[in-house]
Structures are given as structure tokens and as C-alpha cells.
Design goal:
The complex is a heterodimer of chains A (386) and B (295). Chain A is of the alpha/beta class and 386 residues long. Chain A contains twelve helices and 14 strands. Chain B has a single domain, classed as ABC transporter involved in vitamin B12 uptake, BtuC (Orthogonal Bundle), CATH 1.10.3470. In chain B, helix 2 runs antiparallel to helix 3. Chain B is globular, with a radius of gyration of 19 Å. The chains are: A alpha/beta (386), B mainly alpha (295). Chains A and B meet through helix 2, strand 7, helix 7, helix 8 and helix 9 of A and helix 1, helix 9 and helix 10 of B.
Chain lengths: 386, 295
């Protein structure tokens, strides 16, 4: 077993190393040394379930990049971790400590958009690159200092809602909204506009709060509107609670989720209640097809013993993007020269999405993959069949 | 109309959790004079213990609930003896106990996060009565019914114990003045231990039932109950479990109805504004109340 794990890790590292040849041209080799990235993690607190995945992906990327000298001979990249517990004040404190540590060349942070928004002006004024690995609010990236490795979910949500409407032909829909989250407000607004344009009536919007734990009453409220479909635009914990409450109360209409339903822990927790619910996804180990994605899955499984999820992929990409910048900068880069080089990148060359262009500091992926959990706990393409 | 009734039941069930929590919270405050910020963690740990009993020992629902309740009680005693007893011995005031309880809260919360892998876990759906009941076109879940019945039974039992038993008289005596109670033959240490256990057990019951109903077993479970439970105690009156229970249920109903008929965003604001208004009219709570000066 250990040999198999080791072989998978070596294979993943070799494949990662193979992309040296495919990487961008650079003027001078990067000076040997250890390049430190300050990682503001969220491994405790309300969204630690996701935070652990982001960090694991980042650590795998650092291992792969360092093991085969991807950035240049004698070069390593390492991840320094400070936990913010998703608290903006603690994240700011962590960032200040990384800024003060002159050996830290770049930083990566934030799952929650408000936290990312708090940190953004600090890194810009201090002059240190920040790669946001999880926050989804549009407008966060601001090159040359701030970049986002999270695919904007809005367009994917709209595509999913439209596909659902085309497939199941609902007359009216009810929306669940995390009322205290601006990013989800924007996502709901875009999906609602698209559906109303198709003639789908809005039966109602049921607001919940991110910290809520009891969803019996909101589920009763939504079902009281008798919608043909229910679309959920909330963070993971409320989404899980809402689905459980709707199913328990016997709602049999279509439910549409969002990317927060993709981690395996959601299926483990909800089981049959989440089967068949469509949601868009940027990465899934079950649907990995490119050599980079397959190597990522194999390497992750070898290192951590389980499959990576979308969050691990984003953490992984954040470190690869910084490594790409360092490699392209060459010589002895400073924070400022790294920032300048990152701003000149038009894609993340080593990626698990089958293409990852960058525009204005924001990554994107082509198309929208709509999936659903199958009864045996696999992510499968959603066909619309119940 | 059926929507209104269903939401009323939802509010009662939610409020029953607040009430169960408030009963224990109020008991500690009335008898031991401690505003225990760690009380919420008893609920979290009770739910974790009950879940472990189901998953690791394969215990059925009633036994798992008992395990959770016992775990809540045991934790209540442990925290009291480790965090509060040394202060009590030195005659420290309420502020010292409050600060100590905040430290206990943070430590136990962190440990709960570690125990659950920083994840929100849930009871397997076949481990508890999860079906829906339909009565005259009104739907409610079996767990909601169980929660309401548990709250009524706990309130009645606790009321009879505190108000109509010798031990309850001893509790009230210790709550009034420990030294005086000791002079008339009450063993204050025994009363303190029993009170800490009962309070932890009540919080534990709220935690187990809440963990099942909300499919959320994590450190955040107790945090969610803490503020509402405290509000219920303040409104209901510190020294009467009936008041705390009634206020807890009212709080749940207010919360659900505000969200249904006014606004979710303003839900907590409306609820607490109404509570504030009530306290202006009845500052000692529903059933009177006593002012406390010791810890």
C-alpha cells in the first residue's frame, strides 16, 4: 500500500516536472533558495471543513514544485501557515505578520469575500502579492497585487439555472438566499434575472443567515409557496440544512444547489437527500480527464488518503500560480518584481481544469460542468432525470 | 392557515430547545450565582457523545440520548469543580467566575472542533425517529414532537424538584446564602455538584435533540443556543424554571413568525426589541426573580 502511494506521488511529481518544458520562457534562471508563501488558512472556525482542503491542496503543490525543482535548480517553495479561523481581524493580523517577515515573498488568503475585502487594501499598500484562493466576490482581483484563483461562480450558476429550466420546465421557483452574504445576493440576482427572462415566475425569496442552524421554518415557508423548483444560494452549512429540511418535509420538486455541495462530506452527511440535485462544479476527482488533473488526484490521494475536492484544487492552483510567477521572474525576485511578473501572466500553465486563462487577475475556465451526486456517492454529469 | 399552524409548531419546537437550555442556565445562576459562558459547550459535547454512542457503540436512540444527557451533566460537574470550585473557596466574586467560564468555553469549544474534525457532523437518518406526522393537514416531524414533550417533561420535573422537594429547598437555601444553609444542616457541596450535573444534563438534552433536528453536531451547536438561552432566562426570571421555559418557547415562536411574516434579516432585531420592551414593563421577568450578589 505504501509502495503504491509512493509510486502515485512520484508519478504526480514527474508529471508536474514534465510541464517544465511546457512552461513559459524566462530571461534568467531563478536563484536557488527557499521561497516562502504566507498562507492565511481557515483550519478552525465555521468553514474549517473547506479550509483544510484549501491548505492540503497548497501543501501538495509546494511538495510537487519543490521535489523536482520546477522553478529552477536548487529552488524550493514552502508554505507558512497561520490560521485566521475565518475571522477578518485575525486574517489582517496574520497578513501583517507575513508582511513583516521579509522572507515571505507572496501571500495567499481567504475563503470568505468580506475577509478578502479586508485584507486586500493592506497587501496593496504594503506591496506584497496576494493570491485569493477561495473568495468569490467579483471585483476582488486588483493586479499587480491581488489575484483570484476562484472561478467566478455567477455565470456558472446562471448556466445551471437555465439548464434546469430548459430541462424541467418549471412555472415558478423559490429561492433561498444567505441574506448576509453579498456574493450570494449577486449570484441569486443573476440567476433570477435569467429565469424571469425565460418566463419562470419567482414565487418567493426565503432569506436565511449564514450562522443559522434550524431550517425547518424556512423550509415550511418555501414549500408554502408551492414552487416547481427551489434554487439555493447560500454557503454550505445552510445549504445542507435546507436540503435536509426540505426532503424531510416531503418536498419532491426540483432542487438546484451550488458549488458548495461538491465536497464528499456533503454526500456523507446528507446521503440520499442530496442525490440528483444539480450544481455547477469547476473540478471533480470523479470527472478528472487531463493528465494534470489525474496526476493531482493521484498525488493528493497518495499524500492525504482521500480524493481532492474543488477547494483543494483552488489551494493547489494558488501555489502553482505563485511558482509560475517566481519562475518567470527569474534571478532574485522581490515582492515588487514578482507582482509585476504575475500581472504579465495570461494563464495558469499548470492547471487541473483543462485550461485556466487569467483576465485582470481573475481566472476562468471554459464552459460549465453541471453535476449531481449519484446514489453511490459519485459526482456524475446531471442529465435532468430524477 | 395551515402554514401559520405549521410555523407555530416549528416555533414551539425551536423554542423548546432554547427552553431546555435556559432551564439549566438559570439553575446554575440561581443556585450557584454563576453566569456560565461555558454552558453552551455542554450542549455541543453532549451531542458529540450521543453521536459517538450511535456510531461507535451502535446504541439505539433512547440510550444515545441518555448518554448525551449524562455526558452534559458530567461535563457540568467537571467544569464546576475545575473552574469554579477554587474561586468559590476563595470567595471570588461573580466577575471572576464569568471570566473563568469564558476561558472554559473557549477551551471546550476548541476541543469540540478537534473532536469533530472541524466538521459539522450529523446523526445517521436511521438512528432516530425521523418521520413526518400529519394531523388534519398539518405536517410536523416526530423529532419536533419529541423535543416539545421532552421540554415539557424536563420543565415539570425540574419545577417539582426545585419547588416541591427537600432537595429543592436545599438548592434554594444554598442559592440564597451558602453559610446559612450549612448551619441548618444542608451539605452545600452536595447541592453544588447536583446542581451542576442537572444544569449540564438539561443543556445536554437540548444539545442532543438540537443536533438531531438541525443535522448539525459541531462546536457551533452550543454557541447558537447560548444567546437565546440567556435571553430566555432573563425574560423568564432567574429562579423559576417555568418562566425560563415559557420565555424560551416564546422566543422560538417570535423568531419563526418574524422570519415568516416580517423579514429574516430583521428577525433577531425584532425578537430582541420585543424582549427589551417586555423587560421594560417587567424588569424581574415573567415570574418575579431575585437579585444576585454572589458567585
Amino acid at each position: 500500500m505504501r509502495i503504491a502511494k509512493g509510486a502515485a506521488l512520484v508519478a504526480a511529481m514527474l508529471l508536474a516536472g514534465g510541464s517544465v518544458l511546457a512552461g513559459p520562457a524566462r530571461a534568467a534562471a531563478l536563484a536557488p533558495g527557499d521561497y516562502k508563501v504566507g498562507f492565511v488558512a481557515e483550519i478552525t472556525g465555521p468553514i474549517a471543513f473547506a479550509g483544510k482542503s484549501f491548505l492540503a491542496g497548497a501543501q501538495l503543490a509546494a511538495d510537487e514544485i519543490s521535489a523536482n525543482g520546477w522553478m529552477g535548480k536548487g529552488t524550493h517553495i514552502s508554505v507558512l501557515v497561520k490560521d485566521s479561523a475565518s475571522d477578518a481581524a485575525r486574517a489582517i493580523q496574520d497578513i501583517h505578520q507575513f508582511i513583516a517577515d521579509r522572507s515571505v515573498i507572496a501571500t495567499t488568503c481567504c475563503i470568505l469575500s468580506p475577509v478578502a475585502n479586508s485584507v486586500k487594501p493592506i497587501v496593496a499598500s504594503a506591496g506584497i502579492p496576494l493570491v485569493i484562493h477561495g473568495a468569490t466576490l467579483p471585483g476582488l482581483p486588483a493586479p499587480p497585487w491581488v489575484y483570484s484563483m476562484t472561478v467566478l461562480p455567477g455565470p456558472k450558476d446562471v448556466a445551471t439555472a437555465v439548464k434546469m429550466a430548459e430541462t424541467t420546465k418549471p412555472k415558478s421557483v423559490t429561492y433561498f438566499l444567505a441574506a448576509d452574504n453579498d456574493a450570494f445576493k449577486a449570484r441569486l440576482g443573476a440567476a433570477r434575472a435569467a429565469l424571469e427572462k425565460m418566463g419562470v415566475k419567482t414565487a418567493g425569496v426565503v432569506s436565511v443567515l449564514t450562522a443559522d442552524t434550524d431550517f425547518t421554518a424556512p423550509a415550511t415557508q418555501a414549500m408554502g409557496e408551492h414552487p416547481d423548483a427551489i434554487l439555493i444560494y447560500t454557503t454550505q452549512a445552510p445549504a445542507v440544512g435546507i436540503i435536509a429540511a426540505l426532503r424531510q418535509r416531503g418536498y419532491t420538486g426540483t432542487i438546484v444547489g451550488n458549488d458548495v455541495l461538491s465536497p464528499a462530506s456533503v454526500f456523507k452527511k446528507l446521503g440520499p437527500a442530496v442525490v440528483g440535485i444539480p450544481f455547477p462544479i469547476g473540478f471533480s476527482s470523479d470527472l478528472a480527464t487531463t493528465p494534470e488533473a489525474k496526476a493531482f488526484v493521484a498525488g493528493y490521494k497518495a499524500k492525504f488518503g482521500n480524493d481532492p475536492d474543488i477547494y483543494s484544487a483552488q489551494g493547489y492552483e494558488a501555489i502553482w500560480f505563485i511558482a509560475q510567477g517566481l519562475r518567470a521572474a527569474g534571478g532574485k525576485p522581490t515582492r515588487a518584481t514578482l507582482a509585476k511578473t504575475l500581472a504579465a501572466q495570461h494563464e495558469v500553465t499548470h492547471n487541473v481544469y483543462g485550461g485556466e486563462p487569467i483576465t485582470g487577475g481573475q481566472i476562468d475556465t471554459a464552459g460549465t460542468t453541471i453535476v449531481a451526486w449519484s446514489a453511490d456517492g459519485k459526482l456524475v454529469p446531471w442529465t435532468g432525470a430524477k | 392557515m395551515s402554514l401559520f399552524v405549521e410555523q407555530l409548531i416549528n416555533g414551539c419546537a425551536l423554542g423548546s430547545l432554547y427552553a431546555l437550555f435556559a432551564i439549566g442556565f438559570g439553575l446554575v445562576f440561581a443556585t450557584l450565582g454563576i453566569l456560565n459562558a461555558a454552558h453552551g459547550t455542554y450542549a455541543s459535547w453532549a451531542a458529540i457523545a450521543a453521536l459517538a454512542a450511535v456510531q461507535r457503540l451502535g446504541l439505539p436512540f433512547p440510550l444515545a440520548v441518555l448518554v448525551g444527557v449524562a455526558a452534559g451533566g458530567a461535563l457540568g460537574v467537571a467544569v464546576d469543580q475545575i473552574a469554579f470550585q477554587p474561586l468559590r473557596r476563595r470567595g471570588a466574586g461573580m466577575l471572576g467566575a464569568l471570566i473563568t467560564s469564558i476561558a472554559a468555553w473557549i477551551v471546550l469549544d476548541n476541543l469540540a472542533g478537534v473532536a469533530t474534525g472541524q466538521d459539522s457532523l450529523s446523526f445517521p437518518t436511521d438512528s432516530y425517529p425521523g418521520g413526518m406526522l400529519h394531523v388534519g393537514g398539518i405536517a410536523f416531524s416526530t423529532m419536533q414532537l419529541i423535543t416539545i414533550i421532552a421540554m415539557l417533561a424536563a420543565t415539570l420535573g425540574m419545577h417539582l424538584l426545585v419547588r416541591h422537594s427537600r432537595f429543592g429547598a436545599a438548592m434554594r437555601a444554598v442559592g440564597w446564602k451558602e453559610q446559612a444553609a450549612a448551619i441548618v444542616g444542608v451539605d452545600p457541596r452536595r447541592v453544588v455538584l447536583a446542581t451542576a450535573f442537572l444544569a449540564g444534563a438539561a443543556s445536554g438534552l437540548a444539545g442532543v435533540l438540537g443536533g438531531i433536528s438541525t443535522a448539525n453536531v459541531s462546536y457551533s451547536l452550543g454557541e447558537g443556543l447560548m444567546l437565546k438561552g440567556f435571553a430566555a432566562v432573563v425574560v423568564g426570571g432567574y429562579d423559576d424554571v417555568r418562566g425560563a421555559a415559557l420565555a424560551g418557547v416564546a422566543l422560538g415562536i417570535l423568531e419563526v413568525m418574524s422570519a415568516q411574516y416580517v423579514s429574516t434579516s430583521l428577525r433577531d432585531g425584532i425578537t430582541y426589541a420585543l424582549l427589551l420592551g417586555f423587560l421594560l414593563l417587567r424588569p424581574r421577568g415573567l415570574f418575579g426573580g431575585t437579585s444576585f450578589v454572589r458567585a
